[in-house]
User: Fold this.
Amino acid sequence: MVNKKRQSCLKEIQEEEVAFSHVPEHGFSFFLAKRQKTIHFIRHAEGYHNQANYAYGDDTPVTFSTPGAWDYIDARLTDKGIDQCVKARETLLEGINPELVVVSPFTRTLQTAHIMFGGRGYPFLVHNLCRERSGKYTCDKMRSKSEIVADMQPIYDHSYDRIDFDSFGFTTPDDEVWTEEREASESVIQRGVDMMKWLATRPETEIAVVTHSSWLKHLFRSFGKTLIEEDKDELHRLSGNAEVRSICLAMHKGFYPEGEWVGDTDIFIPSHPSFRRGKWSVQPETLATMHKGIQPHELKKN
Assistant:
C-alpha cells in the first residue's frame, strides 16, 4: 500500500497524464501549489568588462586576442555596478523573499548577490550550471576557486551570511572549461534546462538565481515560442545589469533529488544535505529516536 504522504509528493507522471487543468474558454490553468515555484532571475550589475565594451561599442576589449584583454578575467563590479546593486536592493527587491539564493561562481555574480541579499539570513549556494557562456571572452573565464573564495568568503562572513562554495559551485580548482572557442549555444541551453530541473527538485518554493546575460538569453529564448508577442518580447529581451526578472516554474512531471525512502516509511532523505529543508527536513520522530539512544553509562549496562 502506498503511503499517503508519498502520494502527496511529486511522483512521476506518465506521458498520457497531465499535472494541470486547462479550460481554454476560461482563459487560465490550475496547478496545485506544490507544483509551482517562483524563480527570480537576476543579472549581475555592471562589471569592468561591460564598461569597456560600452565605451568601445562591441566586445573587442575582452576578446582573448586583444592586447590588454586579460585584464578583464573574471571581471569585478565597477563602482556604478555596486551602486546599481544598492539601488536594486532598495527598490526592485520589494516583496521578494527567497528561501535560497543561487549564485554563479564568478566574482561579479557573488558581489551582486551579496550586496542585494546579504545580511538578511538567506542561505547562498554557488552553482556551476548557471555560470556564463564560456570561451572567447576573457571576462567569462573564472579565476581559480581558491582566489575567488579568498576574496569573497570574508565578505560573506562579515555579514554573517552562510555561503556554500563547495557542493555545486566548482567542477575543478581551476577553470578548465574556458577555451578560445565560444561555448556552443546548444550546450548553454542544456545547462539552463538542467538548472531548471535541479531547481524543480529543491524543497524551497521561492528562489533567487544571480547569473549572466548570455546564459539568461539562451535559457529564455529556448521557451515561449508560442506566447503572444507582448509576452514573448518581455521574456526574450536581453536582461539589463542588476535587472530582476521573475517567472513561475510549473512542473508537469515528478522531481526528486538523489536519495531514498527510509524503509516503508513516509520519510524521504535526499543524498545531499543542502536539500534537507522544507518537506525533506529531518523528521522529529527520527531525532527523538536518535536522542533516546544517548543514555547514562550505568543505564546502558543494565
About this structure: The beta strands are 20-23, 28-31, 36-43, 100-103, 124-127, 163-168, 206-211, 244-250, 259-261, 268-270. The longest strand covers residues 36-43. DSSP finds ten helices and ten strands in the chain. Residues 1-8 have pLDDT under 50 and may be disordered.
